[in-house]
From TrEMBL:
A single cellular component GO annotation: cytoplasm
Signal peptide (UniProt feature, chain positions): none
Similarity field: In the C-terminal section; belongs to the TrpB family. In the N-terminal section; belongs to the TrpA family.
Alphabetically ordered keywords of this record: Amino-acid biosynthesis, Aromatic amino acid biosynthesis, Lyase, Pyridoxal phosphate, Tryptophan biosynthesis
Stated name of the protein: Tryptophan synthase
InterPro entries linked to this entry: Aldolase_TIM (IPR013785), RibuloseP-bd_barrel (IPR011060), Trp_synth_b_CS (IPR006653), Trp_synth_beta (IPR006654), Trp_synth_beta/beta-like (IPR023026), Trp_synthase_alpha_AS (IPR018204), Trp_synthase_suA (IPR002028), TrpB-like_PALP (IPR001926)
Keyword Amino-acid biosynthesis applies: yes
Any one GO MF annotation of this record: tryptophan synthase activity
Length: 704
């Protein structure tokens, strides 16, 4: 643990005032200014400084901090630069303890142990990791312990009493208390339930409690400070910086003035305090002497009942505010899967969905390939036009059991959004769908459909304005409204238990296909295939065959403009493991752990991550993953359209292209089952748009 941090809180207590914990983003508004701003925070009365490490996908942060991250990344701020900023500030007289705050993926990319060591050398006292709850933090926490750095856990309003002891057990210097549900951001009022919440937490711990989220004024500072040992201000300081930049003012001076006004500590007082033996330059005590008695390798109790990992992939890397909700969801899911009445209820909607979907021999495609039989699992004939409805019906039944009346969802191609809006209409629930602006443009028809069904569609303008950003925004909504809202995740992605839940409801695809091919051919398929975006139609098709070792499993990813360009979405083929959207999986990321923008002609495959079970199937060698680029997908699209009279979704077209290729390689007595995940009506506009460029590449001239 950090002596500096401990002293910062004990000194403030001795002076009968709350410790002032300030937050800024490293590299904002420009990397050259950070050291001066750090020193100005100290002069303004900060007792502790949190230095935010920028990340492309800060899913628990509001617009102010998101913006500061974007600016900082634009100037190339990374972990190495952030460490150097602390070193330089220490050299120029910064004595206040510094805590790094950020998301896990950049830490993984830097190397956990190297980072902890480098932090210690640079004079960083602790780490707050927004998406690393205790269940996932044992390796990082043990490294902090080994090298004598503090690991600072978070407690949220939704944290139950049964969980608080776990969080206090992993804390040493202080605990960060999130004072309200929601993302970071300055607010007009302090949460009225704060006193009750603080009393609840104080029953369990004597560790100092710093309260943050929403604090911006002197009045807030005094009010919040009366309930805890420290007050955190972040977004407001970022706004002060932004306004100073816009007004052409001296940023460090404005920051210093704001801080001293808000905490009410005068320069004279500070000068006197600095002569006392307080927060010294010694960053840590001897390793392992914190209050935490967690030996190396010891794992803490997990609040989840099921295994959260598929091999090395999966887990639940979420802000603390969501953990209770996920464990509740897992419990209800376990109850439902053990309850025959739930299965019967799900199946009672088969008439609505139009299940079972047909398994059809694509005889002209088969002839064209001249090899194995190509069978189509016709999910395109489902109500709403894709496989997404299977999962939407299943999860809305779970939401009903959870007593949640408001549903949120993310969507890329709009098919999941349409499926969700549809079941919300059918079940009489409120529906909000987040969709990237770029996808709204590409899939205008689906936006219109969702609105007609009564859903609110929220266009997302951050980041790449596609599916990943829609997920970030849906997560932000969820952390704000977690008590009333179910997040109906649309693919086999996200934190545990979502990949398992989505797999469960989509496995109807593979289970039916297995039975149907048995009826038609008296055998198992030789190959099962599906396109892979997040991987829900694929895992639904694959899962029932994983133990059937004779069955080859092939997933097809989107190669966009080509895997050797920087415009593709081939996550499994070209990515590396990391953590995004709550799960450890393959990701398209740069060497600093920042997420790369993807491209595919099909909005539904345009995602830089993939379901964690696919990562496991890839690494274990059980499944193969191939890539079809935009032009090849268009070949698959054209073949099915013109040989079978079925216009497929562009997503499914990727799988169709490789189904033809694989069929060519196999003899005629073999059978390939390919998941036709959706129909192409939604894609007419896109195909018309890309044909002038892609048409000549594949010899398709469709000028009318
Ligand atoms: C028709 C269709 N197929 C496939 C996908 C990709 O999703 P997943 O990989 O979860 O099946 C989508 C996503 O929107 C889709 O609309």
């Amino acid at each position: 643990m950090s002596t500096g941090l401990r002293k910062a809180f004990s000194n403030a207590k001795a002076e009968n005032r709350p410790a002032f914990v300030t937050f800024i983003t490293a590299g904002y508004p420009h990397p050259n200014l950070t050291v001066d701003i750090l020193l100005s925070l100290q002069r303004g009365g900060a007792d502790v400084i949190e230095l935010g490490i920028p990340f492309t996908d800060p899913l628990a942060d509001g617009p102010t901090i998101q913006y500061s991250n974007t600016v900082s990344l634009k100037y190339g701020t990374d972990m190495t630069m952030s460490l150097q900023m602390v070193r330089d500030a220490r050299a120029r007289g910064l004595t206040v303890p510094v805590v790094f705050m950020g998301y896990y993926n950049p830490v993984l990319a830097y190397g956990e142990e190297k980072l902890v060591k480098d932090c210690k050398d640079a004079g960083v006292n602790g780490y707050i990791m927004v998406d690393l709850p205790p269940e996932e933090s044992h390796s990082f926490r043990n490294l902090c312990l080994k090298h004598g750095m503090s690991y600072v856990p978070l407690i949220a309003p939704s944290t139950t009493n049964s969980r608080i002891p776990l969080l206090t057990e992993v804390s040493d210097a202080f605990i960060y208390v999130v004072s309200r549900l929601g993302v970071t951001g300055a607010k007009k009022e302090v949460n009225k339930e704060l006193p009750e919440m603080m009393n609840r937490i104080k029953q369990f711990t004597n560790v100092p409690l710093a309260i943050g989220f929403g604090v911006s004024t002197r009045e807030h500072f005094d009010l919040v400070g009366s309930h805890g040992d420290g007050v955190v201000i972040g977004s407001r300081i970022i706004t002060v910086i932004r306004e100073a930049v816009e007004a052409g003012k001296d940023v460090p001076q404005v920051v210093e003035q704001y801080c001293s006004e808000v905490c009410g500590r005068k320069a004279v007082e500070l000068a006197a305090a600095s002569t006392q033996p307080q927060a010294d330059l010694e960053v840590t005590d001897a390793a392992g002497q914190g209050v935490v008695a967690v030996g190396e390798g010891k794992k803490l109790k997990s609040f989840y009942e099921l295994a959260t990992y598929f091999g090395d992939f999966g887990g639940a890397f979420v802000p603390e505010v969501l953990v209770d909700c996920l464990t509740q969801l897992e419990r209800v899911f376990i109850d439902c899967t053990n309850d025959p009445a739930f299965k019967a209820e799900f199946e009672s909607y088969y008439d609505y969905i139009a299940r079972p979907s047909r398994l059809q021999l694509a005889d002209r495609m088969t002839q064209e390939a001249g090899g194995a039989n190509i069978w189509l699992k016709r999910e395109d004939l489902n109500h709403t036009g894709s496989h997404k409805i299977n999962n939407a019906v299943g999860q809305i039944l779970l939401a009903k059991r959870l007593g949640k009346k408001r549903i949120i969802a993310e969507t890329g191609a709009g098919q999941h959004g349409v499926a969700t809006a549809t079941v919300c209409a059918k079940f009489g629930m409120e529906c909000v769908v987040y969709m990237g602006e770029e996808d709204c443009r590409r899939q205008g028809l689906n936006v219109f459909r969702m609105r007609m069904l009564g859903a609110t569609v929220v266009p997302v303008s951050s980041g790449s304005r596609t599916l990943k950003d829609a997920i970030n925004e849906a997560m932000r909504d969820w952390v704000t409204n977690v008590s009333t809202t179910h997040y109906l995740v649309g693919s086999a992605i996200g934190p545990h238990p979502f990949p398992m839940i989505v797999r469960h409801f989509q496995s109807v695809i593979g289970n039916e296909a297995k039975r149907q091919l048995q009826e038609k051919r008296g055998k198992l398929p030789d190959v099962v295939m599906a396109c892979v975006g997040g991987g829900s139609n694929a895992i639904g098709m694959f899962h029932p065959f994983v133990e059937d070792k004779s069955v080859r499993i092939i997933g097809v990813e989107a190669g966009g403009s080509g895997v050797n360009t920087d415009r593709h979405s081939a996550t499994l083929s070209k990515g590396t493991p990391g953590v995004l959207h709550g799960t450890r999986t393959y990701l398209l990321q740069d060497e600093k752990g920042q997420i790369i923008e993807t491209h595919s002609v099909s909005a539904g495959l345009d995602y830089p991550g993939v379901g964690p079970e696919h990562s496991y199937l890839k690494d274990s060698g059980r499944a193969e993953y191939r890539v079809a680029d935009d032009a090849q997908a268009l070949i698959g699209f054209r073949k099915l359209t013109q040989l079978e009279g079925i216009i497929p979704a562009l997503e499914s077209s990727h799988a169709l292209y490789h189904a033809l290729e694989v069929a060519k390689e196999l003899p005629k007595d073999k059978d390939i089952v390919v998941c036709l995940s959706g129909r192409g009506d939604k894609d007419m506009h896109t195909v018309a748009e890309v044909l002038p460029e892609l048409g000549p590449k594949i010899g398709w001239d469709l000028r009318f």
